Amino acid sequence: MKITIITIHPGLLESPFGHSIMKRAIDKGKAEIELVNLRDYAQGKHRHVDDSPYGGGAGMVMMIEPVWNCLNALKKAVDFDEVIYLSPDGERFDQPMANRLSTLKRICLLCGHYKGIDERIREHLVTREVSIGDYVLSGGELAAAVLADAVVRLLPGVLNDETSALSDSFQDGLLAPPVYTRPSSFQGWRVPEVLLSGNEKNIVEWRHASALERTRQRRPGLLE
Predict the structure, then answer these.
(1) Within a domain: residue 85?
(2) Do the beta carbons of residue 36 and residue 74 sit within 8 Å?
(3) Would residue 101 count as lying in a domain?
(4) H or E segment and range at residue 86
(5) Mean pLDDT value across the chain
(6) What are phi and psi of 34, to 5 degrees?
(7) CATH number of the domain that 200 lies in?
(8) Is the pTM of this model over 0.85?
(9) What is the pLDDT of residues 67-94, one digit of tens each?
(10) What would the DSSP string read from start to end of 22-76?
């Protein structure tokens, strides 16, 4: 999978992709992350990518021309399956969406800034708008890193144990059950006996019941 991220702050994204599972995926050749500086496609001495909004108002707006130039140049080499704009008012990102996106080959992520982007970009240049939550960030870079991480870890061969992702929270519509490791007793706090029993059937049943109970307590809306 190739993920191209269009940003005015590529340095913000260097660290998230240089460590842990993301780095492993890149090193294995399972994923390619391309950071594209939008300013490289802006005009003028100062390479401005923003301007004041028509009609007045506070803040600045990302201009359509640099984004148009950038996407046109990129599309000469890559035919994107999706061009995604990270936006607070986009479709809510969740595990099922991550699963679907992980089946694609080429994704472009557009990081917004300022008060947003020229509406014509949204109307004509992007294919999907995605939000990682009901809050506002300074820019789309952190949201892009979140989306990329959630998607890349699902690619075959990225995780050492490929069944691990199948037991993550939300994969079956439930939160994940509690997990424990050694020692079996610490400060008098004991691991549930069923997990020490070696009885696989009972363990599976306990995990499912625990996942249901945790979801009922913490995220009851998922059960609806």
Answers:
(1) yes
(2) yes
(3) yes
(4) strand 82-92
(5) 94
(6) -115, 120
(7) 1.10.1270.20
(8) yes
(9) 999 999 999 999 999 999 999 999 999 9
(10) HHHHHHTTS-EEEEEEGGGG--TTTT--EEPPTT--SS-EE-HHHHHHHHHHHHT
